[in-house]
TrEMBL record:
Record-given protein name: SDR family oxidoreductase
SMART domains for this protein: PKS_KR (SM00822)
Family: Belongs to the short-chain dehydrogenases/reductases (SDR) family.
Species in which this protein is naturally found: Nocardiopsis endophytica
PROSITE patterns, sorted: ADH_SHORT (PS00061)
Lineage, broadest ranks: Bacteria, Bacillati, Actinomycetota, Actinomycetes, Streptosporangiales
InterPro entries (alphabetical): KR_dom, NAD(P)-bd_dom_sf, Sc_DH/Rdtase_CS, SDR, SDR_fam
Length: 270
C-alpha cells in the first residue's frame, strides 16, 4: 500500500469546504400539511414550524386543524374534504391565500383506511381510499408544482405506508392506494429534479396513532402481535415520522429525490 503525504499548507478548513452542516432551516418558507389534525399530522406541523416554516394545516375537521396549530407562530388552518375532487382541486389556491403566498413544502399526510378480507371488500370503501389517498395528492401536487418550479425551490413529501412496500393482510385496497404514491413520487422526481423541486415518500410502519388505536379495538391482540415483530421493540411515535418528513423538507436535503424512506423500527428492511 502506498501512502501519499498530505499537503496541508494553505488548505481550507474542512467545514469551509463542505459548507454548513446539518439542517439549513425553512425560514421564510410556507408548508401545507394535509391530515393535519391527526397524530402524525400534528407532529409534522410542529416539526416544520420548529424548522421555521409558516404552516398551513388542512383537514376535513377545520376546528381540529386550527387547534392542532394554535400554538405555532404564523400558522393557519383550512378545512377541506379531500374526497371531493372540487374541494381537493381548490385546496391549493386556498392554502396560498391563507399563507399570503406560494406553497414551498407540500406534505401529503391525509389518509383513510378500512381493514378486512379483500374478498369481502366494499368497492365504495375502495373508491373513498382512492379519492383521498391517491387522487387528492395528485390534484394538489399538480396545482402547486408549477409555482415551486418557477421559484426554484420545492419539497413534496408523500406519507405512504410500509404496507405499500411489503403488503399487509386485510389492507389490500389501502396498500394499493398508498403504493400509487410511491410511483407518483418517483415520476415527479424525474420531471422536476432540475427545477429545484424534490419529491420523496416516507413509509411509516406500525405507529401509535388514533387510527391504529381504532383498528386495534376492532382487532384485539393485533398491536401486541405487531410489536413482537418489530426489531426496535416498540411502536413508532408520530414524532419519528415527523422527523423524517422535516429532514426531507429541509433545503439541505436537495440531493435526495425519488426516494422511499421507511420509518418502521426495522420491521421492513429494503
Amino acid at each position: 500500500m502506498v501512502h501519499r503525504p498530505q499537503d496541508t499548507e494553505g488548505a481550507e478548513d474542512p467545514g469551509d469546504a463542505l459548507g454548513p452542516l446539518g439542517p439549513v432551516g425553512l425560514g421564510g418558507r410556507t408548508a401545507l400539511v394535509t391530515g393535519a389534525a391527526g397524530g402524525i399530522g400534528r407532529a409534522v406541523c410542529a416539526a416544520l414550524a420548529r424548522a421555521g416554516a409558516r404552516v398551513v394545516a388542512a383537514d376535513l375537521d377545520a376546528a381540529a386543524a386550527r387547534a392542532a396549530v394554535a400554538a405555532l407562530p404564523g400558522a393557519s388552518a383550512i378545512g377541506v374534504d379531500l374526497a371531493d375532487p372540487d374541494e381537493a382541486a381548490a385546496a391549493a389556491g386556498r392554502a396560498c391565500e391563507a399563507a399570503g403566498g406560494g406553497v414551498d413544502v407540500l406534505v401529503h399526510n391525509a389518509g383513510v383506511s378500512t381493514v378486512g378480507p379483500f374478498a369481502r371488500g366494499d368497492p365504495a370503501d375502495w373508491d373513498l381510499m382512492w379519492r383521498v389517498n391517491a387522487r387528492a395528492p395528485m390534484l394538489l401536487t399538480r396545482d402547486l408544482l408549477p409555482g415551486m418550479a418557477e421559484r426554484g425551490f420545492g419539497r413534496v413529501v408523500f406519507v405512504s405506508s410500509d404496507s405499500a412496500r411489503a403488503g399487509a393482510g386485510g389492507e389490500a385496497a389501502y396498500s394499493a392506494t398508498k403504493a400509487a404514491l410511491l410511483g407518483l413520487a418517483k415520476s415527479l422526481a424525474r420531471e422536476y429534479a432540475r427545477k429545484g423541486v424534490t419529491c420523496n415518500a416516507v413509509c411509516p410502519g406500525p405507529t401509535d396513532t388514533p387510527m391504529l388505536r381504532r383498528v386495534s379495538e376492532e382487532h384485539p391482540g393485533m398491536v401486541e402481535a405487531l410489536v413482537r415483530r418489530i426489531p426496535a421493540g416498540r411502536l413508532g411515535e408520530a414524532s419519528d415520522v415527523a422527523a423524517a418528513v422535516a429532514f426531507l423538507a429541509d433545503p439541505s436535503a436537495s440531493y435526495i429525490t425519488g426516494q422511499t424512506l421507511s420509518v418502521s423500527g426495522g420491521i421492513t428492511m429494503h
